[in-house]
Design brief:
Rossmann fold; 3-stranded antiparallel sheet; signal; Sec-Metab_Biosynth_Hydrolase; Alpha/beta hydrolase; hydrolase; AB_hydrolase_fold
Amino acid sequence: MKSLILAAALAATFTSTGSARDMPDERKPTIVLVHGAFADSSSWNGVVSILRERGYAVTAAANPLRGVSSDAKYVDTVIQSIDGPVVLVGHSYGGAVISAADNRAGKIKALVFVAAFEPEVGENSLDLTSKFPGSTLSAALAAPVSLPGGAHDLYIKQDRFPEQFAADVPKAQAAQMAVAQRPIADAALSEKSQVAAWKNIPSWAVYGTADRNIPPAAMEFMAQRAKSKAVVVDGASHVLMISHPDKVADVIVQAAGG
């Protein structure tokens, strides 16, 4: 009788909170997702759904987009709040942030760079964007927004956003993303990296051939230099985690050990 009651309780739990397949497997690392400039944590929604279906616990950090060092310290507080190992995933500028990760506690099992920067010590995002031809981002930026203290926030012009940032995303969705985009402080893009975590942590990379923010040649160069296991998605834009969440999730699962 007790076993029947327990079975009924479990069935009710799965009905109200999701299927058993959605419950995280405690033996697997937690996936920590870090968005980049002009985006927010919702850009990971498709990837999150797939990872949860595969038994992973997932946390999407709200990247402040203020500066590489300070943003990395914030992400570290998220990592330290999680029990057990993590796989740290960064998109675009988020790659510079996860490259600056503090792994003294040894919690970070792997890094995954999604259309992202993998800077060497002393490099910044602007350096890497201009290292190879192909980026059209500067021409698509709106006039900088002045902030108190002399800093500036950068946005992509809303009418240029779909073509520049999300060319393979449905236009209506890309237009909504343009309105909801989060700005990045200009100083964050020029801040030089002080740490290159990919030198000591295994890394993976996935990027598209039609990226207009970071030249694909730059991402190939960075992946080869970091010895990242790279997957290239033909025709994918800068936000391939939205347009190709399955491919991005597959790379994250590989980094997590399957």
